[in-house]
Amino acid sequence: MWDIIVSSTPEIVWAGIKYTIPLAVISFIIGFIIAVFTAIVRITTPKGNPVVLFFWRLLKWFLNFYVWLFRSTPLLVQLFIIFFGLPNAGIQFNAFTAGIITFSLNTGAYCSETIRGAISSIPDSQWEAAYSIGMTHRQVLFRIIFPQALRVALPPLSNSFIGLVKDTSLASSITILEMFMVSQQITAKNYEPLLMYSIVAAVYAVFCTVLTILQHYLEKRMSRYVQVTGE
C-alpha cells in the first residue's frame, strides 16, 4: 500500500499543479471580471438619450438571461455542450480552452449575484455623501462603494473559488488530465480504487485547506480598519 501511495501521490500532485490549479485560477479571474461587469450593468440605469437607454436595457436583459441560464443548468452539462456540442455548430475548442470557457462563464454567473448583493448592501447614504462633494457616479462606484462591497463579498467569493477548485474534477469528463483523471488512470493499472480516490481526496483537501487559510488572512487584512462596537 505504501509503495502505491509513494509512487502515485507525486503524479496526482503534479497534475494538480499543471492543470487543476491553473484551470481554477484562470477561470476564476475571467469569471470575476465577467461578474463585476454583469453586476454593475444589472444594478445601473444610465441617464441619456433613448437610444443608449434602449441598448442598455437590451444588454441588461441579455445578462439576466445569461445568469439565469448558467445558474439553472448543471456544470457538467455545460461542459458537454461547449466541448462536445458546439463542434456540431462549427465551433470547436481544445479541452483546456473549453474548460476555461465553461468554468469562467459558470463562475461569472454565480459571482455576479454575490457582487450585486454586496453592492446593494452598501447604505444609500454612502452614495448621497459622495454625490454631495461633487463625485460622479463612476467615481462613487469604484472609489467608495466597490471597495466596501468587495470586503463584504470576499467570504462568498472565496467559497466560490474553493468550490471551483473541487469542480475542476469534472474536467476529466472532457479529457483534461487533472488530478481526478490521473487517479482514474492509475486505478486502471493497480486496481485499488478506494486507495487512489482517497489519495486524490486528500490532495484536494490540502489544496482547499491552504486556500481557506489564505481566505481568513485576506478577511483580516480587509477588515483591519473596520471598527467593532459592542453594547
TrEMBL record:
Coiled coil: none
InterPro entries, per the entry: AA_ABC_transptr_permease_3TM, ArtM/GltK/GlnP/TcyL/YhdX-like, MetI-like, MetI-like_sf
One GO cellular component term: ATP-binding cassette (ABC) transporter complex
Domain of life: Bacteria
Keywords from the named record: Amino-acid transport, Cell membrane, Membrane, Transmembrane, Transmembrane helix, Transport
Family matches, as Gene3D superfamilies: MetI-like (1.10.3720.10)
Keyword Cell membrane part of the UniProt annotation: yes
UniProt-annotated location(s): Cell membrane
Topology term for the membrane: Multi-pass membrane protein
GO MF terms, alphabetically ordered: L-cystine transmembrane transporter activity
CDD domains xref list: TM_PBP2
Record-annotated ABC transmembrane type-1 domain positions: 17-215
Matching PROSITE patterns: ABC_TM1
SUPFAM superfamilies: MetI-like
Bilayer-spanning residue ranges: 20-41, 194-214
Family according to the record: Belongs to the binding-protein-dependent transport system permease family.
Protein name: Amino acid ABC transporter permease
Species of the source: Paucilactobacillus vaccinostercus DSM 20634
